[in-house]
Amino acid sequence: MHAVRAARQPLRLALATPLRASVARAASVPAVRGLATPTSKVGANVSDAPVAEAEQAELPGFKLAPAKSTAMTGRPIYLDMQATTPMDPRVLDKMMPLFTEMYGNPHSRTHAYGWEAEGLVEEAREHVANLIGAGPKDVVFTSGATESNNMIVKGIANFHKGKKKHIITTQTEHKCVLDSCRFLQTQGFEVTYLPVGPTGLISLEDLKAALRPDTSLVSIMAVNNEIGVIQPLAEISQVLKDYAKENKVTKALFHTDAAQAVGKIPIDVEAMGIDAMSISGHKIYGPKGVGAAYVRRRPRVRLEPLIHGGGQERGLRSGTVPAPIVVGLGEAARLCSQEMSADHAHISKLSQRLIDGITKDVEHVVRNGDPKHGYPGCVNLSFAYVEGESLLMALKDVALSSGSACTSASLEPSYVLRALGASDDMAHSSLRFGIGRFTTEAEIDMVVNRIVQVVTKLRDMSPLWEMVQEGIDLNSVKWSDH
Ligand SMILES: Cc1ncc(COP(=O)(O)O)c(C=O)c1O
Q1: For the Aminotransferase class V domain, which residue ranges apply (predicted)?
Q2: pTM score of the predicted model
């Protein structure tokens, strides 16, 4: 009882500042980062903006910290939004009561705690559905896009394996789709990995040619996590429909991994003819450890569940629905629906500022991806005549990724960039700049300055660069082995 009462206090404070995210954007990201720190085990605080003097009075178990700038904390500028996004403080506000007061099991049918949690979970389901043009009953909550991708790719393949054993995907999918497909190959399925063109787009002709009467599933991502290229989803779906009609076979199901697309660009599952889709909470300013799968009910997409148990989530994903983070995902989705065009305009402006700022002072920079069909919040640049690792090491004050966040543990050149035909050197010297809702102009300007400084310095130390400056064509040079 005591614990509950103590934990309620900061909630009142947190909810008393509903506009803090927009305030934070105007006042720069650090305001969002300056979270208060709990001083006891009683609970966590959610205040993010500087609070008024009167409100700073000591609360049992809590110490309210003032907002800190990145300069004060010494933390690098965060430009890695494809890896993960900071949680929007409004999302945290929405989640907090579910940890402290409304902690019922949403599947409890016999009391108000259960009904209340269930109501909030269903509200979250509606927000996710509204964001993608689906009905709420088509949305299944999962632990994230990795689980949704596994569930959909393996689930659909397994359900149809009696009659159909062929799957089509692309060479540039996220590892969790590629590895699900590789696993299916070990189980006797055949998989076609479509190549991509130099800008990362698939060819619809290639897709048409790969389709077979026994293709059960086509899985093609919406926005690539490394280069931001947007695949033509509606056109892909049309190719599948036309093939089925012409050949009088049942249509292959169309799944898209939309972890990097949902909430960032308009996605409408009905208009785009998508049968199944994967969504991740932490890519849209929501919590980590939660996501969703869109699995169409009419006409019904059939799949074999991966997890068996209590039969929750239409029997497709057993296990108690984690109400607090699901509610966080719902609120993140609601905010994305509300703010998508403002976010997009803000991010596009910063993206252009970054590209212009760098290319104005640094030559021999190649943009990887397709600027005409790309998400502006993902800018992938290769810096010729610079060694990739040295570049990252020298940029310690900026949190960036070279290649995919999920593969950066290995030093292999990015398989996505290689699929575009980039040389190993250019793939190695690539940096991915991920811009988001809370990125500021000042941060972009600081990063531009750092990049210009670092690339210039590294090139000044490079014998290759000296040769280029002297007008020597490096391709004409015969290198000896030792
Ligand atoms: C395109 C894509 N798919 C799937 C995932 C995995 O998402 P999650 O972290 O929610 O499992 C990621 C994350 O990096 C991604 O970028």
Answers
A1: 77-446
A2: 0.86
- Residue 406: active-site member: yes
Whether the CB of 228 sits within 6 Å of ligand 1: no
Q: How far is the CA of 421 from the centre of ligand 1 (A)?
A: 24
Fold of 89-335: Aspartate Aminotransferase; domain 2 (3.40.640)
CA angle 408, 198, 236 (to 5 degrees): 95
Q: What is the pLDDT of residues 259-282, one digit of tens each?
A: 999 999 999 999 999 999 999 999
- Predicted confidence (pLDDT) per residue in 22-60, tens digit: 434 433 333 333 333 333 333 333 333 333 444 444 444
Nearest atom, ligand 1, residue 225 CA? 16
What residue segments make up the domains of the chain, in order of their start? 89-335, 340-474
Q: Identify the active-site residue in 176, 336, 378, 406.
A: 406
Give 7 Cα–ligand 1 centroid separation in angstroms.
Answer: 33
Q: Give the nearest ligand 1 atom to 258 CA.
A: 1
> Is the CB of 257 inside a 6 Å radius of any atom of ligand 1?
yes
> How many whole angstroms from 401 Cα to the centroid of ligand 1?
15
List the residue whose alpha carbon is closest to atom 16 of ligand 1.
225
* In this structure, CATH architecture of domain 340-474: Alpha-Beta Complex (3.90)
**Ligand 1 site, residue 226, Cβ cutoff 6 A:** no
